[in-house]
Amino acid sequence: MKKREFIKTSMVLGAGALFSAPLVSSCANTNGKEKGAFAASLIPVGEEGFKQKELPYSFDALEPYIDTQTMELHFGKHHAGYTRKFNAALKADGITSTDIKEIFANVSSYSPGVRNNGGGYYNHSLYWNFMSPDGGGEPTGDLLAAIQETFGSFDDFKKLFSEAAGSVFGSGWAWLIVNEDGKLQVTASSNQDNPLMDIAEVKGTPILNIDVWEHAYYLKYQNKRGDYIQNYWNVVNWDAVEKLYLGAKA
Ligand code: MN3
Fold first, then answer.
1. Statement to judge: residues 7 and 123 lie in one domain
2. Residue 155 CA, ligand 1 centroid: distance in Å
3. In angstroms, what is the span from residue 159 Cα to ligand 1's centroid?
4. Which of 14, 24, 34, 160 is the most buried (most CB within 10 A)?
5. Which domain holds residue 40?
6. Separation CA 122–CA 234 (nearest Å)
7. CA 176 from centroid of its chain's CA atoms
8. Of the candidates 129, 149, 169, which is a domain's last residue?
9. Coil, strand or helix: which one is 223?
10. pLDDT digits over 13-48, tens only?
11. pTM
């Protein structure tokens, strides 16, 4: 090849590389937005502030694992109350942001009402969507591969998550998160705290949780929290978990 031809060819290749790089990254961004859209859909915002998304199933749909009365009270009273009080606390603190991640990233500088009710609002908004009458079984695809890589097997993961839920002292939540290194991790939190908060010991993006406050199970299970935790696996909506996983990784 003559020198002149070589330069010309290199320049064409170079231009091709310049063109293809932004194209690839813009595709990835679009993909990321689509994957992040599910997470955003769980936290709807209206004129009055943050809203409860409608339940994707009826109050009796999760029977016999989660009873109808618990669902009615938990969604209709507890979660509704957190939602109302969260909006009131934001107003009282003069917080106008509707970016829940941003609010939690600064939560230590706000009033306890923002932390407690904001956590109560967000944690339940995810929880309803981690359950489905068509749930249970096992995850698939990239999520299953990541679970196996991190925890050894799906059963090992279930054991770890169940133990985290069972060992919460008093009221709180257990979580599966994508941590700051992009890896899956199981963690737990007290009260209505969550891993998006700046005060969290272990931070990350939640992709699965379980509510272990007594109000989540006491009507049906009384003191048998372990039975509630074991039955939770029968309703887990792995499609939703995978969507949040892919969104968190995007
Ligand atoms: Mn609850």
1. yes
2. 26
3. 22
4. 160
5. 2-129
6. 23
7. 8
8. 129
9. coil
10. 444 344 433 344 333 444 556 668 999 999 999 999
11. 0.87
